[in-house]
Amino acid sequence: MRGRRHSGSVSVCARVKYAERGEGRGREGIVDEKPDWKNHGVRIVRSGELDTNTPQTRGMTRAEAISHARVGAQKLWAGTVTVHPRAKTGPHHHGELETVIYIVSGRARLRWGEKLEFVDEAGPGDFVYVPPYVPHQELNARADVPVEAVLVRSGQEPIVVNLDIPSPEDDPDPSEPDPFHSAR
């Protein structure tokens, strides 16, 4: 679907949304100024500005990039996650939030379900969708490289509910070959 093209002026809709935030109001609530796009427009969060002061799950490191507090986002949260070689997260869910994971590098194994009974893997360029309340676990499917991914969630609350569910991949015997870390 192609977007509609507009003239160079700001649409009435954009001005009304700007006015609803309490900015640019004139008499009787009529917008009489252009929106301040310099301070309230596109925001860029540089890679060195990510914030790890966000709820964490054992086995991974999350870093916040986009949130209400950082850039004024209203309906989503975005950041990065690293799962180190041979690491796995604890089982968890994100409450009512939907999550999208984009795998940048490495190979992720995902387990989900009431007993983490379902499993699949994702690699660079793959997108993963995690619906609300789904118990899941992320694992690094490789023993030699980290999994690097981008996360986007459908809300602002940093909901991470860690669960006490045994993983089918818990505590392998170190004297046996590790069947859960592929060589791919």
Please explain how this structure is put together.
The chain is mainly beta and 184 residues long. The protein folds into two domains: 36 residues, no CATH class; 116 residues, Sandwich (Jelly Rolls), CATH 2.60.120. The protein contains three helices and ten strands, in the order H-H-E-H-E-E-E-E-E-E-E-E-E. The radius of gyration is 21 Å and the shape is globular.
Short description:
The chain is mainly beta. The protein is built from 3 helices and 10 strands. It is globular, with a radius of gyration of 21 Å.
Provide the helix percentage.
under 10%
Shape field: globular
Q: What profile does the largest beta sheet have?
A: 5 strands, antiparallel
Strands across the major sheet, in which order?
1-2-9-4-7
Q: Architecture of the largest domain, CATH level 2? A: Sandwich
- Report strand %: 25-35%
CATH class bucket of the largest domain? Mainly Beta
Radius of gyration: 21 Å
Number of strands: 10
Uncertain regions: pLDDT < 50 for 5+ in a row?
A: 9-13, 172-184
Q: What is the H-and-E element order?
A: HHEHEEEEEEEEE
Write out the CATH superfamily name of the largest domain.
Answer: Jelly Rolls
Q: How many domains would you count in the coordinates?
A: 2
Q: What count of helical segments does DSSP give?
A: 3
Q: Please identify the structural class as seen in this structure.
A: mainly beta
